[in-house]
């Protein structure tokens, strides 16, 4: 007998909740997969549910408690289910890593990303250096922040540092920055065009200054 997949969707925006439910059902129907979809608009409502879920689509920003707190409590209760965070921002990746989220999706992303997450698909892809804005250490993994999203890679920061070219500079034990995306340089910090700000460690300040000015001297365009 075919097993019925149970999916929980927790998002306070009714419109987006309906969209997610429709996309999940359409995807699963195409694969002849029986499923039950349970919708919640509050984190506490999800936590109080007695159902066990295979997949949990969880909004990071909920009105009663944030999605990470929901996930942490869910994990502490040793309840099953792959947690897929959904949000409009990329600054939450570090916390998503800490609660061992299966995936992290953007609300502005494509429906294909959602389908891949439901399918459990982990893609391989080539990334051009010009796409990388910065790289962040996440324990045994790294988050590679791209112009159009991010990737989580099981690789150390030290290992990937040796594969990068002169555009990249390690400014802290946890960050590598692509100088292409630096809008403002200060002695102790860098600000990217996207508004993201990074502190430069004291130990790295002299090295970063030297490499940054070498880079802009070489690649600066005369207008």
Give a concise summary:
It contains seven helices and 13 strands. With 223 residues, the protein is α/β, with parallel strands linked by helices. The strands form three sheets. It has a five-stranded parallel sheet with strand order 2-1-3-4-5. A five-stranded antiparallel sheet has the order 8-7-6-10-9.
Q: What do these coordinates show?
A:
The structure is a single chain. This protein is of the alpha/beta class and 223 residues long. It is built from 7 helices and 13 strands. The strands form 3 sheets. It has a 5-stranded parallel β-sheet with strand order 2-1-3-4-5. The protein has a 5-stranded antiparallel β-sheet with strand order 8-7-6-10-9. β1, α1 and β2 (35-40) form a beta-alpha-beta unit. The model has no long low-confidence stretch (mean pLDDT 82).
* Mean pLDDT over all positions: 82
Q: Tell me, what's the shape?
A: elongated
Largest sheet: 5 strands, parallel
Question: How widely separated are the two ends?
Answer: 70 Å
What's the number of helices?
7
The gyration radius over C-alpha positions equals 20 Å
From N to C, what is the helix and strand string?
A: EHEHEHEHEHEEEHEEEEEH
Unreliable residue stretches: none
Which strand-content bin applies to the residues? 25-35%
Overall structural class, as computed from helix and strand content, comes to alpha/beta
> Level of helix content?
25-40%
Please count the beta strands (DSSP E, at least 2 residues each). Answer: 13
